[in-house]
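Structure record:
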Amino acid sequence: MLGSPVGHSRSPALHRAAYAALGLTGWRYDAIECDEARLPGLVDSLGPEWVGLSVTMPGKRAALARADERTDRAVAVDSANTLVRLKDGGWRADCTDIDGVTGALKSVGWTAPRTGRALLLGAGATAAAAVAGLAELGIQRLEIMVRTPARAAGTVAVAEHFGLDATVVTWDPALPGASSVDILVSTVPAGVADDCAPAAAAAPFVLDVIYHPWPTPMASAVQAAGGRLATGLDMLLHQAFGQVEQFTGRPAPRDAMAAALNP
């Protein structure tokens, strides 16, 4: 796991549990402090015993740029959270964060769209993956709420790539229309959306990608209102399934990995 900071990451627990369940006793999974500037050099320094890397913020775009091959979906969202060693020694980039979004929402009961609308808070790398996931779930219209609308251009381009009708709106803690969307996804850092918590509780499905510190005010408000809440840990778990399968070539031991999040 490459990222900065990584001390709070639960990914090591997930992957170590997976390797143990698969009988891969010689395998290791470590967290390495690494920002985007250091990532290319670190990747280049790794020996052939390294089969894969998980990448968290702020290195996801650097990982995509460093890769020798890239999946179509990673290119589409301009982000890679997964690097897999190729037979020729190179690296393939993928974005299993998309699977994290869809898996997390399905795990709390999502089946099909009602209005086909969603509200997305934020416009960073995680937001781009969320857009791809929302498209896969059947969302057709998307509002992207940000403090600086000009910074959402990349996320709008991702939405258009996946066939979504996207509109950028200026940040408003009242979250106008939250009760009429199918899904609300918050991809902003801890504390940024705290003032949105009361309004977010009106959405029928909410994904808050934060998992530390937890619970967030938004998560508490949604739970108190009886809404369907998918958490950052749900997303982490479901994105890790694909990483384990790409690293090992075997089906992910999902029950063992889920248990590792709730020891």
Notes: The two ends are 21 Å apart (CA to CA). The longest strand covers residues 141-146. Residues 98-234 form a domain with the Rossmann fold fold (CATH 3.40.50.720). The longest helix spans residues 232-248.
